Amino acid sequence: MAKADLHVHSKYSRHASEWFLKRLGAHESYTEPEEVYRIAKQRGMDYVALTDHNRIDGALHLKKKHPGDVIVGVEATAYFPEDGCKVHVLVYDVDEEHYREIERCRTSIYDLRDYIQKHDMAYAVAHATYSVNNRLKQEHLEKLILLFDVFEGINGARDQNSNLKWMEILENLTPHYIETLKQKHAIQPISADPWIKGYTAGSDDHAALFIGQTYTFAGAVGIDEFLRMIKLKLTVPKGRHNNYQSFAFAIYKIAYEFSRRKSSGFAGSWLGQINEMVFNNRAISMKHRIKLKLFAKNTNKEDVMKQSFRSLVEELKQETGENIEKKFTIVYKKISDILDNYFSRLFDSFRKDISKGDVFKIIRDIASLIPGIFLATPFFSSLKHLFRNRTLTETMLRAVMPERSNVNKRILWFTDTFTEMNGVAETIKQIGWRTHRHGINLSVVTVIEPHEALDGFPPNIMAVPGIYATPLPGYEKITVRVPSLLKTISMVYQAAPEEMYISTPGPVGLVGLLAGHLLNIKCTGIYHTDFAAQAKLITQEEDFSELIENYMQWFYSLMHCIKVPTSMYMDILEEKGYNPSKLSFYRKGVDTEKFSPGISPLESLRQIKGDILLYAGRISKDKNLDLLVEIYKIVVSQNRDCHLIFAGDGPYLNELKKKTAMLENVRYLGRLKREFLPAVYTAADCMIFPSTTDTFGMVVLEAQACGLPVVVSNVGGPQEIILHGKSGMIADVENINEWIQSITKILNMKHDCPEQYAMMCRKAREQVEKYYCWEHSLRDLFGDDVMRMATEPCHQVSTGVGIR
Questions:
Q1: What DSSP string describes 567-606?
Q2: Neighbouring residues of 741: CB distance < 8 A, sequence distance ≥ 6
């Protein structure tokens, strides 16, 4: 039995392919060949392979010193001559004559394959799904499957997802599929059984960090027999896969080695000292220990960076072992803490400026985010690097395994509002409950404050750490919560999602969108709220409203698709310049058991004699409530015994109370618990919803589910819920007489034609049951395949739906 790390680099790999190292002018590796040998042996490797890029001098040097256990290898850069796509092929047991011929023929992958086959050489195609020069496509992978029989199963520089899915593809090849590829590409397969592949593994180490931690296992004694096992496709890949943190630190170590050789003074700096502690396990110098003591006495808040360095050094001093990844975790956490502190102070400034409506300072605050983002950039870059070919792998999986189910894919749903009582939050809670009970693999990602109890909330919540929270100006019942950037990215990475849904364009939504693009995952945006239209009515500031609109368009432009709850708002978004090919309709759902005409009316409203007009929702200026007050004044002036009830809370409540103080029969119920809302709807005779900024209007749907006729505006989304003249009325927002006529018609119908009024109530309920059940909503969101695989049929869940 023997082990060998079959993919390792030394200082003879000169030309860096990673963009950061290229910009520095650094080499790809600075590891001495003898250091490769020492570490590999120390970590239990029976044989040591050196596979530099298009070089064998380092390997030959090592072979002379250790002839019995060194494998001379090369990582040859080969090309598809038809389009210049690069591929790396590892070739073993290479002598100088082999090397010269490999150099000659590697300009064509076909010539290289023929040479390897003719001379019966051991080989493996390295990291096949990684696009070396961004030209790799499905057709190249198909050709590689025909051309070669041995592939790297685990590449220690690639992430687990990439490695395992590539092996899954190769493990599920069939004779029929091979024949299909043969006919398609006119390439003769390399062997008689090309659907059976062999696998190797290697660390692909460039920084002397992970040598020997990924390796190939074979039942062999001696190098010759080990190489024969590779050719016979009998070796087993074992060991670690990479992650984005380790990848970033590996690049950083190479950059550090480069700076040391340039005598830049970096090695003697604080960063240099920390590098020595992390990478070389060396103690900090006396000079810097003295400085640390001075830092300890300095409690000035402006010296947070220095204090963080001191804390980092103290933690690293405690970790004296050789576990490099544990040290990486310590450094990553400390960088996360530094960023959290920076962003927390920045968002406090941002809150003050946004409350003043100071557009120029808001833009300045946004620009101030850049230095903090720069600190996190190495980790973002490594994530992007590791996952840039994710789509290609998924495409190959579907091609090889068309029957493979992708419906139980891991989905993350990001939202900035969840614990609050509003339409968006309550909709997402319902989605959380229903996906959980259907067996759909979805988690709701949000910030949960330590004091918030989650009793009654769905269990599929991924609570990410928050660093700052403040009430949203103009929406005081909504709290803006800022998540920890790097800690949230780490949690999302570990969750390994395959698709993301993003409900809100706030800080949580932004981090979700960033994570989605870094992980190369499909992001679906949910357009719940027209914040720009609302801000315009609340602040009367055109510049501020335009800034929000520009931000919203930028945010949603980064989505792969955008789900909109009404076709009316799809038209509005298209007029605003949104890409129409990204827009698609989805229906919202309502709990028709909880919201039902059979619910007993609220006791306090049951005592009212006369007609009840109802408004339910957020009490905010953007809801056009001044128009509602004017409408009511005219209705009661017609000698009607009519009451106006407001159910809800909001920033405009006190001012609205002052405006209606002289009016009789106006009552404010305030913020109601969810279970009381159906009893309010069933007590009313007509609901009035004059908002022009709602994309949907959840309260309108709830009222209709309770059999309550509703009069809505002809601007915005709620009009699509109403069947004009059948389940309610749609009135011109510019024509107050239409509102008066619509309300009067419904109330007269109630008194003079009760059967016709009852039919309108029934029609409202029937319309909701037919088009707005949760099964339709989930199908619109997740597709038929997901719903077909649900473990339960759709049924109602009595957890409540929020006021919008």
A1: HHHHHHHHHHT--GGGEEE------TTTS-TTSPPPHHHH
A2: none
